[in-house]
Amino acid sequence: MHLGFIGFGEAAFELATGLHGQGLENMKAYDPLWIVPEYSERIQSRAQSANVTIVGQAEKVLKGTDAVIVAVPADKALGASEQLLPHLSSETIYIDVSAASPDVKKQIAANISKVGGKFVDAAMMGSLPVYKHKVPILASGDGTDDFIQLVAGYEMNIEKVSDIPGEATAAKLIRSIYMKGVVGLYVEMLQAARHFNVEELVIGSLSDTMNGKSFEETMNRLVTGTALHATRRSIELSGSIEMLESANLDSSMSAVAKAKIEKLALLNFNEKPEHWHQVIDACKK
After folding, report:
1. pLDDT given at position 285
2. In the predicted model, is pLDDT for residue 35 greater than 90?
3. By the 8 A CB rule, do 61 and 141 touch?
4. How many Cα atoms sit within 13 Å of 132 on the Cβ side?
């Protein structure tokens, strides 16, 4: 396999390092920063350690390449596809691993299809420094099957979502709503717990509650229970907000949560739903 990279930052470097460890030798990369003094030494050093050849023009990466992994910032992803388009072969699989939105991924896929190329929207779901090329990847787009087959001998961990570009990225970004949002809640809760000197008590109580059941079971119980008791729970949260404000502590996450729960109150559930699906479907009406 001949593999190319457009952009050779951390993502490309970690993937290339892992693949080199699996025996892949034919890799080349282009990064516009390779001639910028403050970045060039690091890029060259990384390329050498991963056995990747740095080339001076993006089109040279695409020549004779079976697949190209485009690892550029999200706001550069669409532009990169447009710049590479004149040099793309219909035989090259175009894999975008950026954090661009699902709509942008669809636009990139449309660009690639103009030359008959295959596109993969690849969303990396774990730590690259930890997993390297074995990082869990969700993939969608019409090139996904070909990509999986191409790298079959290199122990990559790729799960196909669909043939629709953008769906893999959508799954990652939706997951991020929780993974990033919950950190905000943690920080707000821990600030209050530390201020009132009850951190061990609060963390222990939450651990008992959250560790008793699986994530899905706990999520379902909290969503359905709150849908039924939304008015009371929003009032209780008002008390938490008042306490935080009186202590000059940030209450922004609690305030947003209260507003969301108040919207659930408008659904007027008279009995507890069996499944969170019922709550979310009711929100659409």
Report:
1. 79
2. no
3. no
4. 12
Per residue in 96-106, pLDDT (tens digit) is 999 999 999 99
d(CA 240, CA 257): 11
Give Cα separations from 264 to 218, 231, 271, 280 (angstroms).
18, 8, 13, 10
Task: Round to whole Å and give the CA distance between 40 and 30.
Answer: 12
Q: Give residue 34's pLDDT.
A: 87
3-state secondary structure of 36: coil
Rg over alpha carbons for the chain, rounded to the nearest Å, is 24
DSSP 8-state assignment for residue 266: T
pTM for this prediction: 0.87
Contact 80, 14 (CB under 8 A): no
111 and 166 in a single domain? The answer is yes
Q: What is the CATH number of the domain that holds 196?
A: 1.10.1040.10
